[in-house]
Amino acid sequence: MQDFSSENNAFENNQIRLFVVDDDDLLRATLKDQLNAEGYSQVTTIAGVTELFQILPECKPDIMLLDVQMPDGNGVDVCRNLRRNGFTKPILMLTGKDAEEDIILGLEAGANDYISKPMRMGELLARIKSHLHQHRASDDVRFQLGPLSFIPATKMLQHEESGQKQLLTEKEAVILKFFIRAAPEIVSKDELLKDVWGFRSGVSTHTVETHIYRLRQKIARVTSEQIIRTTGKGYCLSNGVSD
């Protein structure tokens, strides 16, 4: 596991180019000050969509915090555009507290995760670290899950016989890869929250259930076989896995 001790963290954070894209002047300034205090010295604050696309050709961020609603554009559309044009770095959507529709649209557009405003800095920092670590750990290994093949790096499920394909979001791919690495062991909700989202143990959230539900929906589009099983202790793969 990656070492997030204060000494190593300060060095790594100093190398990370982080974009904060939000039309709220006070939020941008506050986030920049707090991120700087955590060692993220390369923070670029951007007020809107137009400015973002002016800056992007010259400066490629390692991770982006992207507001959903801005006066000159929609963050979901921006995210979709970035993914279509090959931007693979983590994108965290900034949403309203109960903006469930925005969350779903953002994840479908290719966002890695979301965080609700007003946000807690500790939670935001944990998610930034988690997504940077996951991005660096991505690989091109091909796994076999019953009738399906899965390549985490491309986030693609494919039925071996029919050839039917299903693209997963970044987070769905990370969850499925986590199950594969843990197989045949059961993975608890707390383990997923800690290792996939960076939450501390005991945090109450429906994030896991929502993502598992959506992952199962996508799997069902390409196979009728049960791939993920729910137990009293958590989740596991129904069948064996090979690579």
From TrEMBL:
Pfam families: Response_reg (PF00072), Trans_reg_C (PF00486)
PROSITE patterns the UniProt entry points to: OMPR_PHOB, RESPONSE_REGULATORY
Alphabetized GO MF terms: phosphorelay response regulator activity; protein-glutamate methylesterase activity; transcription cis-regulatory region binding
Class of this enzyme: hydrolase
Keywords: DNA-binding, Hydrolase, Phosphoprotein, Two-component regulatory system
Species of provenance: Puniceispirillum marinum (strain IMCC1322)
Presence of keyword RNA-binding: no
DNA-binding region: 140-239
Name of the protein: Transcriptional regulatory protein
GO biological process: regulation of DNA-templated transcription
SMART domains per record: REC (SM00448), Trans_reg_C (SM00862)
